[in-house]
Amino acid sequence: MRYLLASGLLFGLASAAAIPTNQVNDNGNGNGDGKGMTKKFNVELGPRPYYLVNDMDEGPLKTKLQSCSEGPFEVSDFVFAHRGAPLQFPEHTSESYSAARRMGAGAIECDVAFTKDKQLVCRHAQCDLHTTTDILNRTDLAAKCTTPFTPATDNGTAAEAKCCTSDITQAEFKTLCGKMDGFNPNATTVEEYLDGTPYFRTDLYSTCGTVLTHNEYIDLVNGWDLKFTPELKEPEVEMPFEGYTQEQYAQDMIDAYKAAGVDPSRVWAQSFVPDDIFYWIENEPDFGRQAVYLDERVDTVEGYANATASLPDLAARGVQIMAPAFFALTKVDNATGTIVPSEYAVAAKAAGLELVTWSFERSGWLNEGGGYYYQYVAPVINNDGDAYTVLDVLVQQVGITHIFTDWPATVTYFASCFGL
Fold first, then answer.
1. pLDDT at residue 397 above 50?
2. pTM of the full predicted structure?
3. Percentage of residues in the chain with pLDDT exceeding 70?
4. pLDDT value at position 32?
5. By C-alpha distance, which of 355, 78, 121 is closest to 226?
6. 87, 119, 231, 319 — which has fewest CB within 10 A?
7. 3-class SS letters over 163-220
8. Are strands 209-210 and 270-271 parallel, antiparallel or unpaired?
9. How far apart are CA 92 and CA 229, in angstroms?
10. What are 197-255's pLDDT values in tens digits?
11. Which pLDDT score, from 0 to 100, does residue 23 have?
């Protein structure tokens, strides 16, 4: 899946609602890591949802959201934490997951990749270690990268590096520090290359994020009694990899939940690769019935049309949940100038398919249209508060059941307000 300044974004200041039924073992640092006494768990949202509501155009939706300003705010399964809380925390780290949990996410995502010794770890892509960790600063590991760092040149050639989880063992992976995803293509040194955090994120918490194996992620989320959204990442190495097949990779991910005793109803296994979805449907039906087909075909005009037309056939093959990026689920009605469900959304409903979508809070400032995630509704997007306008259409008209978000607090506020 596919980047608000540090000031004004920090959470934990403005809203906290006690949830008496949700107890947590907490060591006093607020992360609920099970090392101390049992206490009530508070969902904390911070100022960002309030900023967005205040920024909205006047109307019934703004009035409704303003009426919910004092909560209560509760953990919601509607809220899928996309890589944790990567708007401010290094993605797929325990710190990012803890922040997502604190902001009310009901399910947390681990993008699953494999290491050189064929162990599963949480990374957004098999080959993103050069932009999401400090591996290039680790002289003992940087030399193992598929493409070691090469500086930018005066003739316009961009800096380059490519470091994959399959370049190193799980033990070596665990020595890395997670950092905010980003790089500087004009860098002439490693230090410059690693300093590329997008303008609307922050390095405030990017000191040394704790990277996690897939099993550690399961233990962490299971200990919080939350739900799981693991995504099997498409390999960037030729498969089979040293005898490791795609089918074994897909099976290993599911086997980890079975070994941990996790009920399949708590797991939304995802993939962009259709064969992974069909494999789970056929070989692990208890997990396959909730498998999420991440649909990137919608990224082109032709692909969008083909994807929309294919939905009845996918439903006939046993697919129950489709998940395109949320831009593909809405459009502007030219007659009224309002945001309405897209052809894809209408076709999915007609085919009896459930819709999950991604990724909220990943677009930066919306005063210039919002970019990729708002491309079909850009003519009517002109302020950050319009994010809630789009979310409302996705919920009330399209009928999505879950949404991935880079900052769970924003969606938790909406979900609690509308009882989702």
1. yes
2. 0.91
3. 91
4. 46
5. 78
6. 119
7. CCHHHCCHHHHCCCEECCCCCCCCCCCHHHHHCCCCCCCCCCCCCCEEECEHHHHHHH
8. unpaired
9. 12
10. 999 999 999 999 999 999 999 999 999 999 999 999 999 999 999 999 999 999 999 99
11. 47
Q: Is the peptide bond before 274 cis (omega within 30 degrees of 0)?
A: no
- Report the C-alpha gap between 369 and 334 in whole angstroms: 17
3-state secondary structure the chain: CCCCCCCCCCCCCCCEEEEEEEEEECCCCCCCCCCCCEEEEEEECCCHHHHHHHHCCCCHHHHHHHCCCCCCCCCEEEEEECCCCCCCCCCCEHHHHHHHHHCCEEEEEEEEEECCCCCEEECCCCCCHHHHECHHHCHHHHCCCCEEEECCCCCCCCCEEECCHHHCCHHHHCCCEECCCCCCCCCCCHHHHHCCCCCCCCCCCCCCEEECEHHHHHHHHHHCCCEEEEEECCCCCCCCECCECHHHHHHHHHHHHHHCCCCHHHECCEECCHHHHHHHHHHCHHHHCCCEEEECHHHCHHHHHHHHHHHHHHHHCCCCEEEEEHHHHEEEECCCCEEEECHHHHHHHHCCCEEEEEEECCCCCCCCCCHHHHCCCHHHCCCCCHHHHHHHHHHHHHCCCEEEECCHHHHHHHHHHHCC
Quick one: pLDDT band at residue 369, thresholds 50, 70, 90? confident
35 has a pLDDT exceeding 70: no
- Cβ-in-10-Å burial (0-12, 13-18, 19+) of 418 comes to middle
Q: Please, which pLDDT band fits residue 7 given cuts at 50, 70 and 90?
A: very low
Q: What is the mean pLDDT of residues 113-142?
A: 98
Q: Is 55 exposed, middle or buried (0-12, 13-18, 19+ CB in 10 A)?
A: middle
Whether the predicted pLDDT of 263 surpasses 50: yes
CA nearest neighbour of 63 among 385, 368, 403: 385
Q: Which of 108, 101, 109, 81 is nearest to 362 (CA)?
A: 81
Give the tokens for residue 152. Answer: 């930018």
Is the link from the previous residue into 230 a cis peptide, with omega within 30 of 0? no
Q: Are 292 and 281 in contact (CB under 8 A)?
A: no
Q: 182-197, pLDDT tens digit by residue?
A: 999 999 999 999 999 9
CB 246 within 8 Å of CB 235: yes
